[in-house]
Amino acid sequence: MSRLVRISLCVAAALAFAVCEFASAQAPVPSSPQVDQRVDAILHKMTLEQKLDYIGGTGFGVRAIASLNI
Question: Which DSSP category does 52 fall into?
Answer without folding.
Answer: H
